[in-house]
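Lab notebook, bench 4. The sequencing result for the construct came back, and we need a structural model before the next group meeting so we can plan mutations. Quick request posted to the team channel:

Model the 3D structure of this chain.
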Amino acid sequence: MIILVKLVFAAATLAYLLGYLNRVRNNALHRRLMVLGFLLTLGIAVTLLAGVYGFHSTYGPAAWLVELAGGLKPAQRVLLAHRALASVTLLLLIAQIVTGMTRHPLHRRLVHIVVPLWLVSFSSGLVLFV
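Done. Here's the predicted structure in token form:
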């Protein structure tokens, strides 16, 4: 399951990158790629939430963190911080989508916040969940 999650997030990241690179040359392609990336992100995020809360899946893929952090509580704090960052990033991504659809001037400013948060969230997920 964790490999599928990483692959889907990697595909979403690739779609976002290609969409960003086409923002000036081909706006229709930019929109399609960004929507694809968002749908991939949203789909896998819902799958993750269902797995964690609906099926009570454990922190198995991040078990190494428990030993490194010196116990379960510090490891849970790190994972909670990752989840909080990922949740904020998703909310800002939704704002990015809405401002892009409405052609709001904030769309171009939000990218400077959303992209770094996305990269930190994606990278930390790759590292935490081996």
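The mean pLDDT is 89.
Will bring this to the meeting.
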